[in-house]
Amino acid sequence: MSNFPPCPQCQSEFTYADGALMVCPECGHEWSDAAPNDETSSPVKRDANGNELHDGDTVTVIKDLKVKGSSLVVKVGTKVKNIRLVDGDHDIDCKIDGIGPMKLKTEFVKKA
Question: Is-contact 83 93, C-beta < 8 A?
């Protein structure tokens, strides 16, 4: 049969998904079938090698990165201590010695 859960109201096995909701065609009941930790937990952030990153980790830059709006460059091998993971187009907030506050992408760092 289907992989959908039975209706919580009438226990019908003929439920189906309609967008973000589950629907029972027999009693008309609609409910959200999101698991509690599917939507509430943020996705795991991984470095260029696939290692899981956490707040407070130390990472190493694996590619020369130009600093936008400046002539500065973050060189390969630069260690960045005490990172903070954030959501958005850049995954890491950090402070680099000699440059200042930066936002980095996880694809350009590896866990130290």
Answer: yes
